[in-house]
Structure formats: structure tokens, C-alpha cells
Amino acid sequence: GLGDIELDMAELAAKAREEMTGESDASDDAPAAGTIAALPSPPRGHRPAPAPDWADLDVDPADLVVIVGGAELGPYGSSRTRFEMEVDNELSAAGVLELAWTTGLIKWEDDPKPGWYDTAGGELVDEADLVERYHDVVVERCGIREFVDDGAIGADHASPLLVSVFLDKDFSFVVSSEAEARAFVEVDPEHTVARPVPDSADWEVIRKAGTEIRVPRKTKLSRTVGAQIPTGFDPTVWGITPDMAGSIDRVALWNIVATVDAFLSSGFTPEELMRWVHPSLVASTQGTGMGGMTSMQTMYHGNLLGVAKPNDILQEVLPNVVAAHVIQSYVGSYGSMIHPVGACATAAVSVEEGMDKIRLGKAELVVAGGFDDLTLEAVIGFGDMAAT
Predict the structure, then answer these.
(1) Shared-domain flag, residues 162 and 144
(2) How far is CA 34 from the centre of its chain?
(3) For residue 7, is it within any domain?
(4) In 66-114, where do the E strands start and end?
(5) Suppose 134 and one of 42, 100, 170, 223 were both cysteines; which one would form an S-S bond, judging by CB atoms 3.0 to 4.6 Å apart?
(6) Which of 153, 173, 198 represents a domain boundary (last residue)?
(7) Does residue 185 form part of some domain?
(8) Tell me, what's the pLDDT at 10?
(9) For 323-382, what is each residue's pLDDT tens digit?
(10) Is the separation of the CB atoms in 372 and 289 below 8 Å?
(11) 97-126: string of b/e by CB count within 10 Å (b at 16+)?
(12) Angle at alpha carbon of residue 141, lines to 137 and 147, rounded to 5°
């Protein structure tokens, strides 16, 4: 046996390291076939939190409600990239790759050679060069930063405003029918005259001097910094079709992406889930504070300004429809649904509702969470309240 043998473990370890170093120095510097250059960020040495000291519990695990998966989509992208920036203030190679991919800087191509290709230039990018080439670029596109033009907020940090002015002389214009001319008169009959154009089917409308009209101008926002989604974020890289991406509200797209990511973190797909849980027992309690904000902009502004808009734009405004896209297009269940509205607490209320449904036997799995968008109306409204 080894009972009588004296072993110096530190000495043995040092000797083993010396032998490994010697072998490494003697080896050929040329890379072996089939190897690639090492990625620039080594594994992180995060120290795990100490195990909690739980009191003895007389609880059957079958009676416990647990969270099996979670995800987010926010100003730093996913929960993975957000965690890296919060802890280390820099991204790992995987984090840079993820953000460069989801923001459209690179794309995977199988031909002519499998690998990541730069979207702008079209050239193949070696994996070892991804961090050096894209790290600073993706960091600039993320986080709490000055507003950039994302379709809902302009880069000029301004909002359109219709201001009141008064005509200093008569102003006339021509319309194609008497009915249209009379409609203008009805708005302000005291200052408006309509008359037929001689030898024509057209009518002339005259707004008299002194008439109040509204003229658009820009007004600067009082708040110019916020937590926008990473610039250039493209939900189609997650498998959402371009047709769907162009027809539903963008917060619905973001919610689908976050839900897909949550299922990935759980380790199972909706199809696998339905093999063991009946679709009627898969519920949804996802909620929102405001609903589809960009669709709301389109609906109200489009009606006022006479701009063409989709016929079904109203449904994209409704808060429950945003959650319904997840169930209809991804999960495929038909269990009970309730969609709370609780401002900043919406996600917490959603989890509570989901827990209640499971404990009451109305569901065995619940898709929960909260979502909201950042638009001009939200920026102006919260600014007026001096709130965040």
C-alpha cells in the first residue's frame, strides 16, 4: 500500500508542469491540420455563489412551481450579452459573435466556404478575428445611449408639432368635387368659401385672411438618452419570415425572439413539450403596459394625416395580440390566457398569474413575461412626468 510512502503533492504538481512546458517548447510551432487559431477571450473564472443554507422542508417536489427557462431582449441584446457587460464591461468572443450576427454585421454562409461573412463587404471573416474587428462596433450599438433613428424615434431628437398660425391673406386651392369642397367648409364655415371653377368639374376652396391653420414644425425632445434595442437588430435571423416581420408590430417580433430564447434555455422545444403536456394545459400570461406602440402611431397618425395603413393595424395595437403571436406562431397551445397590464410591474404580475394558474390546476406550463416599446410618445410622456 501507499500508507508508509511520503508524497509531496505540490512537488509532484510542479514537476508535472515542468514536463508539460518542456514538451510544449519542443513541439513544432506549425498548427496541425484541422486546427484553427484560438479565440481571443479565455474562459471566465466566475466564482459561483455559495450554496444557500436551506431549512429542512417537508415538501413534495411535485407540488413545487419552478421556472424552467428564461430570456430577455433589451438594450444589450440577450441576457447573456447583458450579463457580460454588467460584470466585466466587455464582451466575450461568443458575445461579440451573437451581437454582430443579430445586428446584421455578419451572416453565416455555406458557400463558397462555410463560415461567417461580413455583410457589408462580403468577405469571409476568420473566427479568431471576430472580436478585434467587431467588439467596439457592437458595443457602440448597445446599451443606454443617445437615441438613434430606429423608425419610431429620429436621430435629430425631435418630435413633429402642429403649431397654430393665421393667414394674412386669402388662400385658395382646388378640389375635384363639390362634396369634397363642402367638407372643407363644414370645418370652418365662418372663414371658408367654396365655389365651382368655371368650365370645369372642379371646385375652388378659399380660406379667408385671419383663418387659423396648423403648420408642422419640429420640437426638441427634453430627453435624448434611452435604452433602445441594439441598433440594426434583425429578428429574421431567428427564423422569422420577412413577410411576418413586415406585417406585425415590432414589439411582437421582439417578444417572439425572447420566448424562443427562453425555450432554448429550458432545453426543450414546444413540439417536445406537447408530447408530454396537453396543449390545453399550456397557458399564457404574458402582458404589457402599452401594447404595440409603433402600430398605435401608424393608426392614429395615419388617420389624422391621411396616410395609407394596413387594414388590420388595429389588432397590432391590442395588448393581447402581441402575446397571441407567440402562442399562434411558435408555441402552438390553446390553454387559458390572461394578459395583465401593470406598468413597470407587468412582468412580475405575469409570473404571479402563471403561478396561480398552475396551482389551481388550470395549467401545467405557463408562458409568462412582460414587454414594452420605446417610442416618441413614451419618451415625451415619461419626460412630462419627470419619471423613468
Answers:
(1) no
(2) 38
(3) no
(4) 106-109
(5) 100
(6) 153
(7) yes
(8) 72
(9) 999 999 999 999 999 999 999 999 999 999 999 999 999 999 999 999 999 999 999 999
(10) yes
(11) bbbbbbbbbbeeeeeeeeebeeeeeeeebe
(12) 145
Decide which of 67 and 60 is more confident: 67
Whether residue 142 sits in one domain with residue 163? no
The whole domain housing 258 covers 234-388
For 288-315, write each residue's pLDDT tens digit: 999 999 999 999 988 888 888 889 899 9
The span from the CA of 64 to the CA of 35, in Å, is: 47
Distance between CA atoms of residues 363 and 336, nearest Å: 8
Which of these three, 220, 247, 268, is where a domain ends?
220
- Give residue 6's pLDDT: 73
**Counting Cβ atoms within 10 Å, is residue 239 exposed (0-12), middle (13-18) or buried (19+)?**
exposed
> What grid cell was written down for 6?
511520503
The pLDDT tens digits for 151-196 are 999 999 999 999 999 999 999 999 999 999 999 999 999 999 999 9
In sequence order, what DSSP letters do the residues of 293-308 get, joined into one string?
A: HHHHHHHHHHHHHT--
- Is 39 within a domain? no
**What is the identity of the amino acid at 125?**
V
On whether the CB atoms of residues 174 and 197 are closer than 8 A, the answer is yes
